[in-house]
Amino acid sequence: MTALHDAGELHPAPGAARRNPTRAAPQPDSAAEPARPVVATPDDLDEQTLVVRAQEGDVRAFETLARRHQVALYRLAVRVLGNRADAEDALQDGLLDAWRRIGSFRGEASFSTWLYRIVTNRCLGLLRRTRPAVPVADPTEAGDVVGARSASPERQAELDAGMTALAAALTGLPHDQRVCFVLRELEGLGYAEIAEITGARETTVRGRIHRARKALAEVMRPWR
Amino acid sequence: MALTPDTGTPDTGTPDTGTPDTRTPYTRTPGAVEAHVPVEPLACGRDAAEVWDHTEAGTLDEHERDCPHCGAAAADARGLEAMVGRLAQEPLVPPATVVDRVVGAVLAELRPRDLIPLDSPHGPAALDAAAAAAVLRGVVDAMAGMRARSCRIARPSSSDGRPGPAEVAMTVTARFGVDLSSTTARVRQMVLAAGEQALGVPVARVDIEVVDVFLDEPGPAR
């Protein structure tokens, strides 16, 4: 065995020490640690730890991040693209982009904002390739995302029809308006974050959302 | 259906202050001075987009509640809100196969980026640094109260050109309340042993930096 020249240095970050005022009194480890599951799995880890690990090439850490965020990203893609098949493609390609570019994530935005941006760009790319600029709403395709429901009273049928109509009207909005509206009204994000995701100014985002709301309110008037 | 084309520039002529408004409309005080340009000024002077936000947030002020112009905007907002709320609640879950396919593609295109040379009597051999780091992180993760974050392993050449002992730099997070000096000493011992026994690489130096603390139930950082 090679001799150990240097046992290294121990330098807790100042922040960690500051936030841990109880460390002044050293105590035996056994007393400090009551019985609890010991081995940390990726699911136990905080987001920043997972991001750093993924940036250093840890595929399992990336997989955990992908599983944590996939539902929100998929929801966004389904609502923007109007159907599940394209949304799956956008999610899959977006996650692959995220892996390839994770080294460039610097933490200026939150990781979820960064992922939303990547998937949004994938969606817009798909829309540009596959749809006219202002597509005609296709009720059958929009209905695809509303999902099947069990037989129910008249009001339920009415609401289902309303939702189908709303989903169809969404696909009739210009792409930029649709993305901003979905992020705001269906994902519940703030204007500043939507501006970060779309790369548009906040005033532009506000304008797009307002125009989308007005157009949809007009279409949805019969269902009130 | 009549849909307005998006000009993308509702604020022509007004310079952007460049300062993002970090307040969400939900917490915005009604009537407060706004740092943005009105999207759709109403005859009463209010911004229809603001009234819409306030309606959704349930923060309409007295004027907005009484004014007929604001009232019309609020009625539109309420009319859409119920249906949008239902749409937002529709459960949409991607098939599990999506992430599986992504991980499969990631693994398929994985190429060793950094290699750690191994001492081998049978010719050149090397270890992928990412895999080696995963082994050392696993050692730390298995210790109570500690989790590895970054792990970088370097094996600089010694004076005779052969690979010298490895140097490991780790950042870790510690459970709130653990004794950092004794625990990090244990981390160092474990990493030294794992380098030797699991990786077959002598380790000369282990730098450990405690960068964060966590509470007992960390879960996803949200």
UniProtKB/TrEMBL annotation, chain A:
Which family does the UniProt entry place this protein in?
Belongs to the sigma-70 factor family. ECF subfamily.
Stretches assigned to the RNA polymerase sigma factor 70 region 4 type domain: 165-216
Q: Where is the RNA polymerase sigma-70 region domain?
A: 65-131
Q: Where is this region: Disordered?
A: 1-44
Q: Name one GO molecular function term.
A: DNA binding
TM annotation in the entry: none
- Looking at the UniProt record for this protein, which Gene Ontology cellular component terms does it annotate, in alphabetical order? DNA-directed RNA polymerase complex
Q: Which residues form a coiled coil?
A: none
Any Pfam family hit = Sigma70_r2
Gene Ontology BP annotations: DNA-templated transcription initiation
Top-level taxon: Bacteria
Query: What InterPro entries does the record tag this protein with?
Result: RNA_pol_sigma-70-like, RNA_pol_sigma-70_dom, RNA_pol_sigma70_r2, RNA_pol_sigma70_r4_t2, RNA_pol_sigma_r2, RNA_pol_sigma_r3/r4-like, WH-like_DNA-bd_sf
Q: Which SUPFAM superfamilies match?
A: Sigma2 domain of RNA polymerase sigma factors, Sigma3 and sigma4 domains of RNA polymerase sigma factors
Q: What is this protein called?
A: DNA-directed RNA polymerase sigma-70 factor
This chain's source organism reads Pseudonocardia sulfidoxydans NBRC 16205
Name the keywords, alphabetized: DNA-binding, DNA-directed RNA polymerase, Sigma factor, Transcription, Transcription regulation
Automatic annotation (TrEMBL), chain B:
Q: Where is this region: Disordered?
A: 1-32
Its domain of life reads Bacteria
- Segments of skewed composition (Low complexity): 1-31
Q: What is this protein called?
A: Asp23/Gls24 family envelope stress response protein
Taxonomic lineage of this organism? Bacteria, Bacillati, Actinomycetota, Actinomycetes, Pseudonocardiales
